[in-house]
TrEMBL record:
Originating organism: Streptomyces griseoruber
Protein's name in the database: HTH luxR-type domain-containing protein
Record's keyword terms, sorted: DNA-binding, Transcription, Transcription regulation
CDD domains documented for this protein: LuxR_C_like (cd06170)
InterPro entries: Sig_transdc_resp-reg_C-effctor, Tscrpt_reg_LuxR_C, WalR-like, WH-like_DNA-bd_sf
Native organism taxonomy: Bacteria, Bacillati, Actinomycetota, Actinomycetes, Kitasatosporales
GO molecular function: DNA binding
Domain HTH luxR-type: 131-196
Length: 198
């Protein structure tokens, strides 16, 4: 865990809070799994700052902000895993959040969560939908084929059900497998099941 703050007083205070927890080990910024960053607001300048930090590629950020936070910048930097309001946070909440983020969990204010969901909806509507794709990377025709295969139908039965030739069904499956890097039909069906598509 490392701390980055433009203001030395804030940085010292955060390090002091975190040092009180024996389960948190301070590390150099270049080795940190979790980096606590104090910022005025979550905006383009913070994104620039985060991308310029010498933190490892797999590190996650906990932002402690005193101003606004919008979904756009959070969506643009997927390593932001938590946003805490400076006026509301105490040492216990900060320590708990650092542990949660290190364990793979996230904490984002509800307004940011709503904004992220709105952004996902917009991407589905404006980018994926017109191309016949969903957020899973599968289009509705591919999902229909995989759903029928998951029910135990043969390729000829799937073709008859969907009014396609058997060759078309094979082409649909092949295109999905290649695009998603799947080796066979079983993996394709498993992918759809794990994604909650069927």
């Amino acid at each position: 865990m490392a701390v980055h703050a433009a203001d030395p007083l804030t940085g010292t205070g955060l390090r002091t809070w975190l040092a009180e927890c024996p389960r948190i080990s301070p590390t150099a910024l270049g080795e940190a799994e979790v980096v606590v960053v104090a910022a005025a607001a979550v905006d383009a300048s913070v994104l620039h700052l985060l991308r310029g930090l010498p933190a490892p590629a797999g590190s996650r950020f906990v932002l402690l902000v005193s101003g606004g936070c919008h979904a756009g910048p959070v969506a643009a930097e997927p390593r932001i895993r938590a946003v805490l309001w400076r006026a509301e946070v105490d040492a216990a909440a900060l320590v708990r959040t650092v542990h949660d983020v290190a364990a793979g969990r996230a904490f984002l204010p509800s307004a940011v969560q709503g904004g992220l969901l709105d952004e996902l909806e917009r991407i589905q509507r404006e980018v994926l939908g017109p191309r016949g794709l969903s957020a899973s990377g599968l289009n509705s025709r591919e999902i229909d084929v995989l759903r029928l295969l998951a029910e135990g139908r043969t390729l000829s039965e799937v073709a008859a059900e969907l009014s396609y030739s058997e060759r078309t069904i094979k082409n649909i499956l092949s295109a999905a497998q290649i695009r998603l890097g799947l080796r066979n039909r079983v993996q394709a069906v498993s992918y759809a099941i794990r994604g909650g598509l069927i």
